[in-house]
Structures are given as structure tokens and as C-alpha cells.
Amino acid sequence: MTPLQKVAIGLVIVVVSARFGGYDALPDPVGWALVVAGLLPLRAGLPLGGWALALAVAAGLPQTLCCLVLCIGLAQVADRAGDREAVRFGLLRWAFVVVAAGPVLVYGGGVDALAAPLAVLAVLTNVAFVYYLFKVSRRGYGSTVAEASTAPD
After folding, report:
1. Where are the strands (E) in the chain, listed by range?
2. Which of 8, 30, 110, 131 is most buried, by CB atoms within 10 Å?
3. Residue 138: its pLDDT value, please?
4. CA angle 75-101-91, nearest 5°?
5. Burial class (CB in 10 A: 0-12, 13-18, 19+), 84
6. Phi and psi (nearest 5°) for 20?
7. How far apart are CA 3 and CA 13, in angstroms?
8. For the chain, how many helices (H) and strands (E)?
């Protein structure tokens, strides 16, 4: 399993809620543990990888911030590799910015009409991000970023 596949599966566990008898069968700490396990080997070779790892460890609202930082790093790496997925990660970056700012508008600004569209955007953004993590996980920059950066000079 590649590091980005671990991150994607971890995010699925964090995002999906499977309640049985009042308990979540997919506890968020397990998902975040997978995200952290996936980010550990990538932290040195991925731009902002250390920040993504730190935010994954902290979790919570940082979930969106962690995904945003990871998206920015992957967009940079994909761009350097000449991969068209750089554009998609760039678009997802802006979607995460809107998702992060959404609660400020809805709750702080009292714009209740935006609550449902922002919730839909949050779900779609997370699903798209997980999809693209799986899609690029076997490409050179998605599975061997750390190996390439830690190779002896």
C-alpha cells in the first residue's frame, strides 16, 4: 500500500460516520492514525509535508487545513512532474479554502442560506480529494516522494 493510499483510506474513515448503537464503528483516531502513517514517509519530500503531518496529528478543524496543505504540496509536486493532476489539486485547494471559511460566513455572519450548499461542497471536496489521492498514489511523486528525497547524493 502506498503512502497516499494510506492517507486516502484514513480520510475515508474520518469523513464517513457508521453509527451502530450510538457508537461510531469507524473511529476518527483510527483514520487519523492512517493519515499520519501515510504522511510520515512523505514529509521530507513533499512540499509542506511536515506541516501536513503536524496538522494531521492535531486533527479537528485542522482536518480541512491538513487536506488543504496536503493539496498544495501535491499540486506543486504534480506540477513539477508535468502531470495534469496539478490543476485538479489546485482547484481542490480553493474548494478547501471555501470549506474552511464557510463556518465563519454561516455562523459568524449569520448567512444561514449558505449552510446546505457549504455542507454539500465539503462532502464533494473530500470525496474528490480521496479519489485523486487514490488516482495518483502509484505515480512516482505519489508513492516515492520520500525515497527520491532521501536518496544519497
Report:
1. 19-20, 23-24
2. 8
3. 84
4. 25
5. exposed
6. -135, 115
7. 16
8. 8, 2
Using CA atoms, how far apart are residues 13 and 115, in angstroms rounded to an integer?
Answer: 23
Cell readout for 78 is 504534480
| Angstrom distance (rounded) from CA 133 to CA 12 | 11
State the Cα–Cα distance between residues 86 and 75, nearest whole angstrom. 4
Three-state SS for 67? helix
Question: pTM for this one?
Answer: 0.72
Containing 52, the helix (H) or strand (E) segment is helix 49-58
Beta bridge partners of 101: none
Here the cell at position 20 is 451502530
Place of cell 492512517: 34
At 105, the amino acid letter reads L
pLDDT in tens, 80-129: 989 999 999 999 999 999 998 888 778 777 888 888 899 899 999 999 99
Tell me if residue 24 falls in helix, strand or coil.
Answer: strand
The grid coordinates listed for 43 are: 514529509
Alpha carbons 6 and 129: distance in angstroms, whole number: 13
The H or E element spanning position 70 is helix 62-80
Q: For position 140, what pLDDT does the model report?
A: 77
